[in-house]
Amino acid sequence: MSMSAAPALSRATAPAPSDHDNAAVVTVETDPRGWTEYVSNRAGATGYHDWPWRTVFKAAFGYDSIYFAARRHGAVVGVLPTVLLDSWLFGRALVSLPFVNYGGVLADDVAAERALLEAAVAAATTRRCKHVELRHVARHFDHLPCKQHKVTMMLALRQAPALWDGLDRKVRNQVRKGQKSGLTYRAGGLELLDEFYAVFARNMRDLGTPVYSPEFFAEILRAFPQRARLHVVSLGETPAAAGLTFQTRSTLEIPWASSVRDFNPLCANPLLYWSVLEGAAAEGCTTFDFGRSTPNEGTYRFKAQWGAEAVPLSWEYSLPPGAELPNASPTNPKFALAVSIWKKLPLSVANRIGPTIVRAIP
Question: Looking at residue 170, what is its pLDDT?
Answer without folding.
Answer: 96
